[in-house]
Write a structure and sequence with these properties.
There is one protein chain. With 273 residues, this protein is α/β, with parallel strands linked by helices. It has 2 domains: 127 residues, Rossmann fold (3-Layer(aba) Sandwich), CATH 3.40.50.10860; 131 residues, NAD(P)-binding Rossmann-like Domain (Rossmann fold, 3-Layer(aba) Sandwich), CATH 3.40.50.720. 40% of the residues lie in helices and 18% in strands. The protein contains 11 helices and 12 strands. The strands form 2 sheets. A 6-stranded mixed sheet has the order 2-1-3-5-6-4. The chain has a 6-stranded parallel sheet with strand order 9-8-7-10-11-12, sandwiched between helices. Strand 7, helix 6 and strand 8 form a beta-alpha-beta unit. Helix 1 packs across helix 10, helix 1 runs antiparallel to helix 11 and helix 5 packs across helix 6. The structure holds NADP nicotinamide-adenine-dinucleotide phosphate. The site of NADP nicotinamide-adenine-dinucleotide phosphate has 25 residues, from helix 5, helix 6 and helix 10. NADP nicotinamide-adenine-dinucleotide phosphate binds next to helix 5, helix 6 and helix 10.
């Protein structure tokens, strides 16, 4: 039996085990996906131990996505982004970033052509960094807006064709945009949108990467404005699909993984904590 897993601390209500195990069942793969919560200072021992035990692959979540950088080989994209969310143990432990491909594939799945598009990305945290590179690598011009403006400006210096801004300019920044991605956590803890309603138009496609709740205030406002919408479960799905395909070398059963993920999310309370 092959073992895959997720390292985080804390790992609460992770959707990855049911999503990956549904894929193993569908393809008849003898494998399990389990969660681990090592203490932060035990991360290196955890990676070495996983390698020694023959664990086939690990996902990384908070607080390990950056901490793991010096402990593994890095592929080119993970190195540029500066964060790892997937490790394979095929040879030396190697770190990848499937959040970037997850965002790109979520947009592709909805027939959003990013090549040549004007994209506005809100957020310059861990997920925002990955999405900024994904959008730029796919050919978009990326306007990054972040509460802490310096973080956006700093990220923009590393990303081709990108500029960094604060959130005050959002109305102007969105005036000519084709795609808007929310990569802040706004909308998760409370029914609030990071974007003024009047800045949303029917010319936009709006992707929110917050997936708890699935229907955020931003997506509701966007739909009311006539914009296209993509919820946060799509990126979550496709980062998992990318990890699955990298680890197993097989095409992922996307439909089954999507149904499982959405089934789990719809079983959760939509109420704000
Ligand atoms: P992070 O590194 O902590 O970054 C948080 C981001 O949100 C920063 O840009 C931060 O701005 C901004 N922010 C936080 N509170 C804000 C507020 N009140 N007003 C305006 N901006 C605010 O977190 P992360 O790992 O990037 O995750 C961000 C969100 O994406 C989370 O909700 C997470 O669940 C979700 N996520 C989804 C997926 C997916 O697959 N769908 C994957 C990864 C993450 P400052 O820089 O100013 O602090």
């Amino acid at each position: 039996m092959d073992v895959y897993g997720l390292l985080g601390n804390p790992v609460t209500h992770s959707l990855s085990p049911p999503m990956h195990e549904a894929a193993y069942r569908e393809l008849g793969i003898d494998a399990r996906y389990v969660t681990f919560e090592p203490e932060p200072e035990a991360l290196e021992a955890a990676i070495t131990g996983a390698d020694a035990l023959g664990i086939r692959g690990l996902n990384m979540t908070i607080p390990f996505k950056r901490e793991v950088l010096p402990l593994v080989e890095l592929d080119e994209l993970a190195d540029r982004i500066g964060a790892v969310n997937t490790i394979d143990f095929d040879g030396r432990p190697t770190g990848h970033n499937t959040d970037a491909a997850g965002a790109r594939r979520a947009l592709e799945h909805h027939d959003v052509d990013v090549d040549g598009a004007r994209a506005v990305l809100i957020g310059a945290g861990g997920a925002g960094r990955a999405i900024a590179f994904a959008l730029a690598d796919a050919g978009a011009t990326v306007t990054i807006a972040n509460r802490t403006e310096e973080r956006a400006v700093e990220l923009a210096t590393a990303v081709p064709r990108a500029t960094g801004h604060g959130l005050d300019d959002l109305n102007d920044l969105l005036a000519n945009a084709d795609v808007l991605v929310n990569a802040t956590s706004v909308g998760m803890e409370e029914d609030r949108s990071p974007v003024p309603t009047e800045a949303l138009t029917r010319h936009l496609t709006v992707m929110d990467i917050v997936y708890r709740p699935l229907e955020t205030r931003l997506l509701r406002d966007a739909r009311e404005a006539g914009a296209g919408t993509i919820d946060g479960a799509w990126m979550l799905l496709f980062q998992g699909v990318e990890a699955f395909e990298r680890w197993t070398g097989q095409e992922a059963p996307v439909e089954v993984m999507n149904e499982t993920l959405r089934g789990e999310l719809s079983g959760e309370s939509g109420a704000f904590k």
